[in-house]
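Let us work through a complete example step by step.
Step 1: write down the sequence.
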Amino acid sequence: MHLYNLALANPRYAVMLIGLPLLIAIEAFAPLIEGARRWQHTAKNLVIGAIYVATTAVLGLGIVWLIHATEHHHWGLFNRIAVPLWLQVTLGMLLLDFADYWRHRADHTFRLLWRFHRLHHSDPVMEASTTIRNHPGAAITILAPRAILIPLLGLNPLTLIVHAPLALAGQLYHHSNLKLPARVERVLGRFIVTPSQHFVHHAKIRKYSDSQFGVILILWDRLFGTLVDAPERSATPMGVKGYDDAGSQTIAGMLASVFEKKPALSPAFAPAPLETSVQK
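Step 2: predict the structure and record it as tokens.
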């Protein structure tokens, strides 16, 4: 019970319980892309999200245990060499975000991982609730980078306490359907992933969906050539071909989609060459 209480005490949940409803409310009054009957779509995303969050809470027990075991047994690099706490936290957060970038690319590269990640992409729109529209099975791969890096680097608990809510806040923001001033988007887009950069990742066109893998920082997409120029968002179809029918968008259909085989309609699993360019 002690571990479970610690898992639930993660500030990530505070961001979710405050930030997600706030963004949904703002999207309702000032959406970038208008949509009829959007509340029904959002409600289904929230049901799927609740199942996913419950799964991560259970698996989070293992992460909490790993943090305590790492600290108790002095595992990892930072427990072997003298590194100031501020530098441990900074480097740890950078490496967690770096690992999330490659984990996200792996979701698009390996067929089994794509099956679980596909539910997130099958959303025909992109809005804040899309952030938690994940198959519960995807929680394993999403938590995997933390499970590897905690004992390997000897990550300080403070690193996870800061990174977890920051990563969620970043994802809620870059999945949002908010109408923001272009200048604000441009300035933020030099450093972090923004909605105007990330929406192409949810496009039906593979050239775009195999790009923009960053979670917090846009740096990794710039470094590894996966940042592409964005088309007009309002004219870009979202989702996954073959999973946009009414049946696939029900709660049962979304959960069952992981068992469906539609290879001709899924991304090819060796990423195609991208026409890359850095957004200015």
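Step 3: interpret the result. The radius of gyration is 19 Å.
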